[in-house]
Design goal:
This protein is mainly alpha-helical and 445 residues long. The protein is built from 20 helices and eight strands. A two-stranded antiparallel sheet has the order 1-2. It has a two-stranded antiparallel ribbon with strand order 3-4. The protein is globular. The chain binds NADPH dihydro-nicotinamide-adenine-dinucleotide phosphate (NDP). The site of NADPH dihydro-nicotinamide-adenine-dinucleotide phosphate has 18 residues, from helix 13, helix 16, strand 8, helix 18 and helix 19. Keywords: Cholesterol biosynthesis, Cholesterol metabolism, Endoplasmic reticulum, Lipid biosynthesis, Lipid metabolism, Membrane, NADP, Oxidoreductase, Steroid biosynthesis, Steroid metabolism, Sterol biosynthesis, Sterol metabolism, Transmembrane, Transmembrane helix.
Length: 445
């Protein structure tokens, strides 16, 4: 067992050592990220969406007094509402039918099964929201109107969920050989210990929390802020319609291709800690919806040409995003027999091993979009994110912080992924990087 443990620690999965600097970084992220969300809310609620005015007021008043005066307050109603929402989503996740899908081989050699019923859960949830709003049982702006209290609830929920995941990893791990310990409790809390924590055989924390309280909430929040804009001003702007359209496209794409999502880094590589637990429950519903929170309060009137320009950039980004991700999945799922742009796909056939000592085969595609750059799908995401932010105009930085966050996240991910793939595929990865030289932007980097 000791040898197996050492092998696991050395495998191509997540890192197994955290320096004091990494632990400090993790501690700072855990502390500062909830403050970031709260600052955004204060700026939107009290300072017209201006981070500069918010910072000036905080400096003038003193941070402690400023925080005491502006801190968002929880309500019992919002907390119960949120717990009911998570429970309903858990029931839909558990009981709705859906196709059986498979993830990716884990470093310890586990191949997990999932029921991918996300599209049905999204449809049922939105149909319920629409029907209850139409007959007047539900105020469609309910989420927007309770935003302050919900902000507190989701932060507390996410922090506790991450703690629960950390304890579970020690006392009841789902796949013990896929755990990673770094020796730093803070780093482990942030990055997670278990790769795919589950309750029982199928109830998967990552798929549930990312998809349901995270991504299903995304479009509901959009609709709620749209209703808020309408109730407050008596109209819905083109900018609000446009950003909501982009979000719907992205979210529906996610659920339509939920099977594909099982083979992305979130599921195959990231362990479940604060990063995903708090990230899915608190961060995603807040930061990813900044544009509608802004537009709901401060409408932006786009000219028709600028609306079309933004639409064109967003749709091009989405098309590239879907096409890249589809090419990779198609070539791998057909074991290289597929065609790309009318020609047989090109790839490098490679092998890698798992800690159970077995050797497996895989393909690294070198044609289509994947022949131009090793992460063209990230570039596509950035185009789409930029278009989403552009709907808010250029007056304030705050709604654009989503774009800069995505840029940072994807560049960091790119670096992590390249390191991991080099460990996993060794000489095959070197061959691949010689063949496809650009990391992100063809001809530049
Ligand atoms: P990828 O889907 O690109 O997955 C990377 C993995 O794919 C690698 O670890 C490797 O895994 C495999 N791979 C790498 N190169 C090749 C190749 N040439 N041929 C075949 N397989 C290859 O990245 P992500 O999972 O990070 O992202 C998926 C999508 O989701 C992207 O479009 C991204 O922009 C988006 N995204 C969106 C986020 C959001 O918050 N909106 C957050 C993160 C991502 P292996 O070989 O082990 O299978």
């Amino acid at each position: 067992m000791a040898d197996v443990y050492l092998d696991i620690q050395k495998s191509w999965g997540r890192r197994t050592k955290a320096s004091w600097l990494s632990s400090l970084g993790a501690g700072l992220i855990v502390t500062l990220c909830p403050c970031w969300l709260i600052t955004n809310w204060i700026a939107l609620e009290y300072y017209g969406g201006s981070l500069r005015l918010t910072a000036q007021a905080a400096l003038k008043q003193g941070i402690v007094e400023f925080a005491a005066q502006h801190a968002p307050q929880p309500t019992f109603r919002a907390s119960i509402g949120y717990l009911t929402w998570v429970t309903v989503q858990a029931l839909l996740y558990n009981y709705l039918p859906g196709p059986l899908s498979y993830g990716q081989m884990t470093p310890a050699g586990n191949l997990l099964k999932y029921t991918t019923n996300g599209l049905l859960a999204w449809t049922v949830t939105h149909a319920l929201y629409g029907a209850t709003s139409l007959v007047g049982i539900l105020d469609p702006a309910i989420i927007a109107r309770n935003w302050e209290a919900l902000l507190v609830t989701v932060n507390v929920y996410g922090i506790i969920l991450a703690l629960f995941a950390q304890i579970k990893a020690y006392v009841a791990p789902s796949h013990p050989l896929d755990r990673k310990f770094t020796g730093s409790m803070i780093f482990d809390y942030f990055c997670g210990i278990e790769l795919n924590p589950r309750i029982g055989d199928r109830w998967d924390f990552k798929l549930f929390y990312n998809g349901r309280p995270g991504i299903i909430a995304w479009t509901l929040i959009d609709l709620s802020w749209m209703a808020y804009q309408y109730q407050t001003f008596g109209f819905v702007t083109k900018s609000m319609l446009l950003v909501t359209f982009f979000h719907f496209l992205y979210v529906l794409d996610f659920f339509y291709n939920e099977d594909w999502y099982l083979r992305t880094i979130d599921i195959t590589h990231d362990h479940f800690g604060f990063n995903l637990a708090w990230g899915d429950t608190a961060f995603l519903p807040n930061l990813y919806t900044l544009q509608v929170q802004y537009l709901g309060r401060y409408p932006v009137h786009l000219t028709t040409p600028s609306a079309f320009l933004i639409l064109a950039i967003g749709l091009s980004g989405y098309t590239l995003f879907r096409s890249c991700n589809h090419q990779k999945d198609l070539v791998r799922s057909t074991n290289g027999t597929a065609t790309i742009w009318g020609k047989p796909a090109e790839y490098i056939r490679c092998t890698y091993s798992t800690t159970d000592g077995k050797t497996h085969q895989s393909l690294l595609i070198t044609s289509g979009w994947w022949g131009f750059s090793r992460h063209a799908n990230y570039l596509a995401d950035l185009m789409l994110s930029g278009a989403m932010c552009a709907t808010c105009g250029f007056t304030h930085f705050l709604p654009w912080s989503y774009f800069f966050f995505m840029g940072t996240l994807l560049l960091h991910r790119l670096r992590r992924d390249e390191k991991r793939c080099a460990m996993k595929y060794g000489k095959f990865w070197s061959l691949y990087t010689q063949k496809v030289q650009y990391k992100l932007l063809p001809g530049v980097w």
